[in-house]
Write a structure and sequence with these properties.
- This protein is mostly beta strands and about 190 residues long.
- The protein has no helices and 14 strands.
- The radius of gyration is 24 Å and the shape is rod-shaped.
- The mean pLDDT is about 90.
Length: about 190
């Protein structure tokens, strides 16, 4: 008898951790261990072959699949057949997401001045980024950059004067939306 292991490679597992089986790669690579020289075949839930390879002398294999559709919890079956004809099987469930919606900043969260003039008063001790958006995907998180996208943080704290930053969303598979520029003025002169 023979046994087989399977996992997404760290470079294909692009989610929040390298073991969550979320990927933005629709041709991910599956790797594992099996008996040396065994043939390894990967099939999708419908039984269609999406990858094939042979284990090396140490029993390691690495197979890049053909293009998989976007979708959550896709079950792949990995079957090995050794040179004596013995088979082993395991499954790998992955989620593929190759797209991310574009965020649109629709308004200031608090706009105390003339609507749409991008000037407002804010309680800076309580204010967050102070923007209203559309296009936010469930399970995504926001990131903010004040240096043109070189670095990203999980929050933005406005300040008195001109506030300029970019905002993007990052979905579970690690996809990032195109950054959306934001600019507004906080004027607390008469507060």
């Amino acid at each position: 008898t023979t046994s087989i292991t399977a996992d997404l490679t760290d470079t294909s597992d692009t989610g929040d951790s390298d073991h969550d089986n979320f990927t933005k790669d629709n041709t991910p690579t599956i790797e594992g261990k099996v008996e040396a020289g065994a043939t390894v075949v990967i099939t999708d839930a419908a039984g269609h072959e999406v990858g094939r390879g042979t284990a090396d002398a140490s029993g390691s294999y690495s197979i890049t699949t053909s293009q998989l559709p976007d979708g959550m919890m896709q079950k792949l079956t990995i079957t090995s057949t050794d040179t004596a004809g013995n088979t082993a099987q395991t499954t790998q469930t992955i989620s593929v997401d190759t797209t991310v919606a574009q965020l649109t900043v629709t308004a200031l969260g608090t706009d105390t001045g003339v609507k749409g003039d991008a000037v407002t008063q804010l309680d800076l001790a309580k204010a967050g980024a102070n923007i209203t958006m559309s296009g936010f995907e469930p399970g995504a998180h926001l990131e903010y950059s004040t240096d043109g996208g070189s670095t990203w943080q999980s929050s933005y704290q406005p300040h008195d004067g001109k506030n300029e930053f970019m905002v993007r969303q990052v979905v579970y598979a690690g996809n990032e939306s195109v950054p959306t520029p934001v600019s507004y003025v906080v004027d607390n002169t008469f507060v």
